[in-house]
Amino acid sequence: MSQIELTTLGKSCEFFNGKAHEKSIDENGQYIVVNSKFISSEGKSFKRTNEQMFPLYKGDIVMVMSDVPNGKALAKCFIIDKDDTYSLNQRICCIRSNKFDTKYLYYQLNRHEHFLAFNNSENQTNLRKDDILACPLIKPSMEEQQRIVSILDEAFAAIDQAKANAEQNLKNAKELFDGYLQSVFENQGDDWEEKKLGEVIKLEYGKPLDETKRKSNGKYPMYGANGIKGRTDEYYHDKKSIIVGRKGSAGEINLTENKFWPLDVTYFVTFDEKIYDLMFLYFLLSRFDLPKLAKGVKPGINRNEVYEIQALFPSLEEQQTIVRQLDTLRAKTQKLEEIYQRKIADLEELKKSMLQKAFAGEL
């Protein structure tokens, strides 16, 4: 990279803050509100308004200024693609510059390590104007910027296609297992007995656990509505079970270890082990879209509604045979999923590596 200039965002760009739109949201509005969800979804998820409080123009770069600890949206950028279409929301900034190629500046700013360094993994990150203006930038000639953009565009297009193929293969692997699972329960034998879930399982309430009893290196897992939330040296239940989210991530299901503590936002499953197999019940429950039963501002599930669900049950021996077949297929599909997930992660790392080379003068 020849004749580069080291500068900052404040010296090379104009910075603008967005405005609050919460009171002017209108699903039939003329303008798209550019907020964190809009940017993090690459423009696929959005709200509308009829009040264009801060107009955006083609070529503007917008960036997320606030996110939860370790959030993936912090400092994520988006290039505005047309005039008179968007309005900038609060906690999103707009960056304009006539000293950079727009795409080059986007590549350099998007999730810049200067911004990510403000994340302390504990509290919400709120980038201040001064933090953003102090971001260091590399400014080569316009011709060099455009050359780099051309290389990155071509490389990223190939990487994105490879990633899309890997994601489709990952989806296919998951659907293979889901399809087989569905067929197992749709092609039941004549001797399968129909029962309500309430006749087979009990959803027992979890229990709060005092903060003083929570230990990072505790012997036993502590389950919340969507999985392990920590550890403790105490246990509430001493048999392997199934956790069903009761509040929050209501309807999510997770298998437990042999001894565990279910928090008060959960149910845990008890049943007659002489008649039913735990893994069969787990696979059965995974077929039902339990989250759709959730109601309320903080979604919650009433166990009595779960109890009313009808299902068919074979003998314990046949349950165990089905579980062995499903376990074998699940092991194979999980291996495939791991391969594709690793490939997707590797492709993302390749992107990061190319960006590092681009701004180190190695392209």
UniProtKB/TrEMBL annotation:
Domain Type I restriction modification DNA specificity: 5-161, 190-338
A UniProt-annotated Pfam family: Methylase_S
Biological processes per GO annotation: DNA restriction-modification system
MF term (GO), any: DNA binding
Superkingdom of the organism of origin: Bacteria
InterPro entries named in the record: Restrct_endonuc_typeI_TRD (IPR000055), Restrct_endonuc_typeI_TRD_sf (IPR044946), Type-I_RS_S_subunit (IPR052021)
Cytoplasm listed as a keyword: no
Coiled-coil intervals: 152-183, 330-357
Keyword flag DNA-binding: yes
Assigned protein family: Belongs to the type-I restriction system S methylase family.
Protein name (Swiss-Prot/TrEMBL): Specificity determinant HsdS-like protein
